[in-house]
């Protein structure tokens, strides 16, 4: 039986951060991982998906400038994607962990009691015990909709899409969230005919309405068949192809990507052994302690908590958890004030997100609807992104910006940008929201000319009237 200070279930970026911050504080840590160390983001999500998108975006940007032409080879795009995933080899990640003083144990781990984890690995079954804490960072898995016949055909999940070795002639995408929109555009630009089926009235439903509207318009302009408020009645094999029976009639495709959301990965990790319900998110306080378990030993971070299903937010939570465990281990008083060192305050009101479509959608904080639902008196400012920097960026640049202001406190609570190359502007919004910078002070943050950041000046001018 092995004992360490901290056991981390799940070796994605969230688990790596939790373990790393525990080790930095002088504790010993072990990561239990049954797949590739580095997890979903490194091998099947953020990194490969952006690699699939980047070349198409760069070529589209060139074509928006006069006197330029550009083409690309889809096979080269797939090869470049493979380079970022190291051909799905995690040796470099293991070397990093070892160099950071973190032990890696291969195998499927599950809780079997207080601070105890049983691991089924290549060498058999063993039990490891944590002296201080167990941290669950097992992420999320795709949620499958109850469509008749879906289990009778082959389907792509996000993993299959981002690791595809060939570009299908015809692709159907079920779901209009981030994965659905990004992969619809990526494969359309790689050469597929694409139909995107969305059950609701708009794409990107968790974001400001104008974001989904602009992305839908861009996809349609590129030839994606975007069908909103569209019902998928059933699915059936059609030889080597797949027939989708929809409210507008049948659609036959070569591949079907199911991108209808994700659910916390808690079904097979033994949470029932500590009194929790499998398949449900692990509810945590802002230090990462799992509610419903006594003893201050079980923590969780990332998608598995159901908070913000984003890699960067999970890594942030992992850092908070690692620091909180270390503080409790040495008897240090935790800093649990809002924005304190041991609380994940940003999860509630300052989450940034980028949708890497073209146009990009970059948002931070609350939407107008979320702010009003939270009881905040808000004023919304909407303007086009029409400054010297955007005109230089692309001929006919077409973008939009929204600022949501808490009028009682005079601070930003939400910002959304939609347009080419807006992603790199969103951190300024995140800083303003986290720092609760008064708008009269923000007025003195002078944007450099001629950059697209001058949109900040235009937003403030519009607010001041």
UniProtKB/TrEMBL annotation:
InterPro entries: Class-I_Pyr_Nuc-Dis_Oxidored, FAD/NAD-bd_sf, FAD/NAD-binding_dom, FAD/NAD-linked_Rdtase_dimer_sf, Pyr_nuc-diS_OxRdtase, Pyr_nucl-diS_OxRdtase_dimer. NAD(+) binds at residues 175-182, 261. Coiled coil: none annotated. The keyword Repeat does not apply. Binds 1 FAD per subunit. SUPFAM superfamilies: FAD/NAD(P)-binding domain (SSF51905), FAD/NAD-linked reductases, dimerisation (C-terminal) domain (SSF55424). Residues 5-312 form the FAD/NAD(P)-binding domain. Disulfide bonds join 41-46. FAD binds at residues 50, 109, 138-140, 303. Its cofactor is FAD. Belongs to the class-I pyridine nucleotide-disulfide oxidoreductase family. This is Dihydrolipoamide dehydrogenase. The lineage of its organism: Bacteria, Bacillati, Actinomycetota, Actinomycetes, Pseudonocardiales.
